[in-house]
Amino acid sequence: MAVPKRKTSKSKRNMRRAANSKYVAVGYVKCPQCHEPKLPHRVCGECGYYKNKEVVATK
């Protein structure tokens, strides 16, 4: 049966775990109505439109 020869250091252990925690930031898209950046699949905060329909009334 295979057994580790030396104890894995805290640094090596943490480096291994850190590789799994990396993530990519959410990309922004342009709103088709007002051309402001917004999160995908969400109502635009500037104009209140989603899929070319006004969902939220804005001032």
UniProtKB/TrEMBL annotation:
GO terms for biological process: translation. Gene3D superfamilies: Single helix bin. GO terms for molecular function: structural constituent of ribosome. Pfam families: Ribosomal_L32p. Transmembrane segments: none annotated. Keywords: Ribonucleoprotein, Ribosomal protein. InterPro entries: Ribosomal_bL32, Ribosomal_bL32_bact, Ribosomal_zn-bd. It comes from the Bacteria. GO terms for cellular component: large ribosomal subunit. NCBIfam families: rpmF_bact. Belongs to the bacterial ribosomal protein bL32 family. This is Large ribosomal subunit protein bL32. It comes from Alkaliphilus peptidifermentans DSM 18978.
